[in-house]
Amino acid sequence: MKKQENESFSIDEKKLELYNEMAWQERVSKKQMEPDIDISSYLVNQGFEIIRADLPDSITGILLVDETNEEKPLKVIAIKKGKEKPQSRFIVAHEYAHAFLHKKGTLQFAHRDYENLANNQQEQEAEAFARCFLMPKELIIPLCTKFKEDRDLVNKKTSKEDLIEFVRNNFDVTVKKANQRIRELKICEELHVPC
Ligand SMILES: [Zn+2]
């Protein structure tokens, strides 16, 4: 069973559309429309503290929010030290997604993520929101379209791997996340790239 692969696709299209909309609104309202957004600075500007920590082996990231003291709210995202930049960026986006989607009205909220993400709704939602935030439809589709068109002009064939590489470089994400996003947005089908 390819459980791992299917995990991120069990989010339904409507929800994905909604998350994309919410994530894009966030970015537009803060004027952060560049593909390789500096997510740490973005969140620091919103009062988060981002820490790189020596977390236990199985743990990738932790979110801790405590707003009981209104004057001194605590919003911390801890990510495991030693991860490559594209991975760290995604973990930060994933923790932010929990704060954005799941904290709701509570003043205190904590969440912990493991290397092997639990296959439950909250985790899939956080993953989907993180993909939408780091690779908004409004950026990835026009950029991929232009990439393909420029290659067409010089009679260069475009493969799915070329698209993944392009997205990985431009959005500073891992191959795996680039691939997931391309698939969920059906970019290959859209651009007539063989998948
Ligand atoms: Zn999570």
UniProtKB/TrEMBL annotation:
Residue ranges occupied by any IrrE N-terminal-like domain in the UniProt entry: 47-182
Gene3D superfamilies: 1.10.10.2910
InterPro entries: IrrE_HExxH (IPR010359), Rad_response_metalloprotease (IPR052345)
Signal peptide stretch: none
Domain of life: Bacteria
Pfam families on file: Peptidase_M78
PANTHER family from the UniProt entry: ANTITOXIN HIGA1, BLL0069 PROTEIN
Name of the protein in its database record: ImmA/IrrE family metallo-endopeptidase
